[in-house]
Structures are given as structure tokens and as C-alpha cells.
Amino acid sequence: MNAPVTIDTDNRTSAPTPEDLTLTVRDERFNRDTMPRRWWAGDAFGTAWHNALSATFPRGEAFFIEAVKAHRDGADPKLAEEIRAFVKQEINHTREHIAFNRLAEDHGYDIKAIDKRVGEMLALTKDRPVIVNLAATMALEHYTAMMAQEFLANPQHFKDADPEVRAMWEWHSVEEIEHKGVAFDTWNHATRDWTPFRRWKLRSLMMLIVSFNFFRNRWTDTLELLAQDGITGWKAKWGLFKYLTVKPGVVRRIFPAWLSYFKPGFHPWDHDDRHLIGKYEGEFEAALMPAE
């Protein structure tokens, strides 16, 4: 594992993203046939939580793409290339989660209701400044990177899951780690004329807003999916709380990484976790497609 890369102030415009990092588009396909109803180790809570996450990805990742592309003008060649690869990776993620969501719907889960709510929320962003949408994207990309790191570093999360579903989440996690600095580097480029305090204030405020909405909405979405599985009331709420904070406890485990986002001068590549990409890279070797 390489030494962590650090950045000193929010006013620095050169990115600490590793110079030798290459974003690779892995054109993989999963879940075109069947999967178990409770694919997460037969457990309703893990299944519902990840189904709720997956339901947000098609619209959410389209939002990420547009937010980053809106600020690509004038980017240096390396960042411009990374933005192109980021877009291709996110398009593939969208395609695979659409396929996954269809299988979940085949089991009777109302995934479209979550997708509709996400669409209604994103409609509210149409008239706000595009830099705010980039700040929101940057915060949400930090969430995907935190969870990706946790999923790959701690195999217990998907150890007993359906093998093909596990492979999809691992593949997605690899690419989320790989492109975790793109939105942030685009932010550094877009706000290069801002004061350090202004940059820190907006990205920190957006993280707080995004965090509140993320957990409120995913909690509601997951409880609705659990109700469709016959689990309601305090049994559903207590079971979901234990899943998120006790075992496997993904929310508890990512909290230090979440807190680090508020550090002045933070950058996603302060923690170089490329070893996790290499850990799973061999599984996708046949699908590697260098970004153009």
C-alpha cells in the first residue's frame, strides 16, 4: 500500500490524486438471469438496504455525470481524461443497477416507487447554481467511496451473499474507489478562484445537508421494502438499526472517514487505498477496457 497523499489547504488547485492512477472502464455485466429474493445471505435487512441503495443509482449517477461535466471546461488534460473515464464508468454502473433492480422487481419489490421519489428530488435541483450540484455530487461520491472501501476491505459484508450479486457490488466498489477523486478535483478546478474558507464552508455545509437527506431517505426506502417483505414496526426499525450500526455495521465503520471530510484541506486521496482495487482486479481482467 502506498503512503497516504496529503493536501495542505482548500486553496490548492493541484490535485493530490496519484499521478500514476489510471481510471479503467470495466465493461462487466451481471444479473441477467435470476437471483434469490433475499440475496444478502438470506437476510431481509441487508437485502432491503442494498436494494434501496441500488434503486437510487440510475438517476443519481446521471446527476453525478451532469454535475461534473458542467465544470469540465478548462480542465487540464489529466483531469479531462479522468472526467471522460468517470462518465463511462458511471454509465456502466447505471446499466448494471437497472438490470439488478429489474430482478428485485421480479420478486415483488416496488423499486419504481423509490426511483420516482429520487426523480422528484432531483427535479428540485434544476434551478439551483450548478456549483451547488457539484458540491452535492462531491459529498455523495464520498459516500460511495467510503462504502466501497468498507465493502472491499471487510469481505464479511458480502461473504454469504449471492455470488453474482456480490460480484456486481465488488466491481462497482472497485470503480468507486478508483474515481473517488474526480468530482473533488473538478471542484478544485471550478472553485480555483475562491477563498479557502468559502470552499470549505460550502463543501462542509453540503455534506451535512446530503448526510441528513441520505440517511432519512434511505431509512424510509428500506423500511418500505422491509414492509413489502412482511417486516414492519419496531421489528423493522430495530433490525435495520442493528444492521447499520452493529453487525456488519457499515454506518459505524465509515464514520471516521465521514468525519475526515470536514478537515480543512481534505482530499479523497488523503487515504490511498488502491491496494483494494488490485485485490479484486484479477476477477475482471477479461473485461478491462482502457478509457479513451
UniProtKB/TrEMBL annotation:
Which domain of life does the protein's organism represent?
Answer: Bacteria
PANTHER family in the record: METAL-DEPENDENT HYDROLASE
Spell out the protein name for this chain.
Metal-dependent hydrolase
Q: Mind listing the UniProt keywords for this protein, alphabetically? A: Hydrolase
Single GO MF descriptor: hydrolase activity
Q: List the EC numbers from the record.
A: 3.-.-.-
Leading EC class = hydrolase
* Naturally occurring in which organism (per UniProt): Qipengyuania profundimaris
Q: Which InterPro entries match?
A: UCP07580 (IPR016516)
